Amino acid sequence: MQFHDAHCHLPINYFYKDIDNFMKQWLDLGLEYVVGVSMKYTEIEKAIELQKKYKQIIPGFGIHPWKVKRNMPEEQINKISYHVATVSPLVFGEIGLDHHFIKKEQYYPLQEEVFRFFLNLSEQNSIPINVHSKGAEEKVYDLIDSFSIPPSNILIHWYSGPKKILYKFRDKGVFFSINPSILGGSTHRFVLEEVELEQLLTESDGNVKYWIKGERIIGSPAIIPQIMEKIAEVKNLSIDEVSEVLSRNFKEFVNIS
Q: 137-146 pLDDT, tens per residue?
């Protein structure tokens, strides 16, 4: 059974320094593709290196809202624009807004400026986006909706906001990623219950730590098969049916055949 991880922080040292061993393990399990998202510019450079080494790694270019404390330097803007023209396939992520964990409101306009930068590049270059929206779900929806980005190129990562905004995103036709928290009774399960399989992807958000059945688990692509089993259980489908649809969804999201 093949599987995909739409959101894993591969450029962080935990994975990056031991990528050969990790990739061997994941490929043996059936990994077909993993999106290696970035949180800051130096990780973008690492994500590009990883793709050169493994075709199964799709780099994610992003500045996480937690990392936005100033305007983007012109040099970074120029380098990102250059890489957009030379790297394929590619995802913009992890990008978005965070008004929950980031309490200092003076950073919110800066977050929006960086988010708009990537949304504009997405619109101009038909590049999919991998979006963080914690505590700013309605604002994120409105910003995305102001750009001409196909719904199939939009992934809402680990959604946990108000149901009314979930329904707006769902009705727009975007993708949502389901992560290991559903294995431990998380409220994230309502996304799985309320969204059709045709709009779902799987993610580990590695190396986030999860408590699952009393055990501390480090997220990585290795846990994706368990997520797929839970999806199959909730949707009352076979694992093969789930695998087929999720594979099709992922390839549609990242623009690959």
A: 999 999 999 9
The CATH code for residues 3-253 is: 3.20.20.140
Whole-angstrom Cα distance, residue 108 to residue 71?
Answer: 12
Q: Which pLDDT tens digit goes with each residue over 70-105?
A: 999 999 999 999 999 999 999 999 999 999 999 999
DSSP letters spanning 195-224: S-GGGEEE---TT-EEEETTEEEE-SGGGH
Distance CA 72, CA 254 (A): 26
The DSSP call for residue 12 is S
Q: Are 102 and 66 in contact (CB under 8 A)?
A: yes
Residue the block writes with tokens 């190396």: 207
pTM of this structure: 0.97
State the virtual CA torsion across 200, 128, 130, 9 in degrees, nearest 10: 100
